[in-house]
Design goal:
The protein is of the alpha/beta class. The protein contains 21 helices and 25 strands. A hairpin with a 4-residue loop joins strand 14 and strand 15. The longest helix is centred in the N-terminal third of the chain and has 21 residues.
Length: 565
Amino acid sequence: MSGGRLNSLEIAARAEIRPMEQIAEAMGLPGEFVEPYGSGVAKIDLAAIDALQDRPRAKYVLVTAVTPTPLGEGKTTTTVGLGQGLQHIGRRAVLALRQPSLGPTMGIKGGGAGAGRSQVVPMERLNLHLTGDIHAVAAAHNQLAAQVDNHLMRGAPSGLDPARTTWRRTVDIDDRPLRRVVVGLGGNGTVRETGFDITAASEVMAALSLSRSLADLRERMGRIVVGWTRDGDPVTAEDIRAAGAMTVLLKQALRPNLMQTIEHTPVLVHCGPFGNIATGNSSVVADLIGQRCGEFLVTEAGFASDMGAERFFNIKCRVSGLAPDAAVVVTTVRALKAHSGRHRVVAGRPLPDEMLAENPDEVREGADNLRHHIGIVRRHGVPVVVAVNAFASDHASEHDAIRRVAAEEGAACAVSTHVADGGEGAAELAELVVQATQESARFEFLYPEQASLEEKITAIATQVYGADGVDISPGARRDLDEFTRRGYGSLPVCVAKTHLSLSADPSLRGAPTGWRLPVREVRLSAGAGFVYLICGDMQTMPGLGSAPAAEQIDIDENGETVGLY
């Protein structure tokens, strides 16, 4: 629904920004751990983790979603709305969100601050640079790349083979031509083919998000594998003496950022790994702080439950030691109509008129996708609440259809109008979440640590995605065998695939059957602590579309930003 007559940018611009000392005080965070970073933003000292250890733990709530359309279904907005809704019913809540990447902000998806009356503010600061953490990640990543090429130019005393050097470069912009480049031209370097990834897909970003302390971050930087010798031995950032400088570049970025919602609910914003080509979750340290600062800690995981939530359960929770008490699966009428297979949604274009017509039967036809995502969460032993992110174009009969589907699956369901009404519009959802956290959660990982890499891949493909099996390319299989032989077989697995389908084919809607997961490439993220698969046509550097959001962003005659959302 629309947030009144004002658009999201106008609502955010008119929001009251309270001093960060007040926000910290509301969450019981002593001022000695809070460093203001300009208006509406602060950094939190990691010493707060140990200082708050004697406090009770908050209920831990994950927000995930059905498979989205290219427009997105408002998962971050619902997370913000839920936090405000909990506050509205008298519960103390803290949110933990990722920092938006400039790539999608300037590309198709737009920013990641929420919408309408459920936003994080200052919205413009959140979406553009914030405290510079993402730029620090890019600097650390590219410092390593520079030292790798310097190492090669000077004879590679580690034995690093130029032909087996795997470390790429990064930039926080969607820039398709940089996917494959040649470096070392000009007669003063080692000529080799390499490429760029977007910063949100950087191993450094993932390692930062999973680090529990500065010492842990330093160890993770040292473990990063930049390539291999001719004998097949790994060469690390430690081997080429880059890990220390990388850690120094990241020292301030390891401290979570504190912000607020429009209704002044505290928000911890930290790290920004993508949900389809990285781990898709905010940081462990933000959660370790937030869990001691309220009755509820609400976090979101990128894209649908097969993407960010699966990594939340099987990667992040292994590192943090925390277990979720409940999960919210966000859906929309338009997403389920799209999953009926009767409509095609294109980013940057209005929804087809026929898709806006009242049609609860289409909603039920597409509901297998919702059923599947409820099942993914339940497979991990976590109670589920379904949240319908309501739009003005929805019809009551369509909401009723979703409620019936949820009831058939044994899940509570709330229709939430938080975009238009803020926390009041999410009050029903908040009440259901409180009830769900009082159930007996029996959280469990999808696979044991000692399972083989191929067994882990197969478990994700068949039990989460619904595939019949896995097809691993010869090159990927060789790499899997080599990683296992080198002692990396106990690592969890992170799968990069399209977020627009449960399968690896973005054109397959609903809950497709009769398909196999094609594993094209395997990469080792030893510093972050997982093995990274690239499936189908997935790219780790996105490209701009035909009408990128950047074309609409400008400043007006008063110097105010327009077109940012």
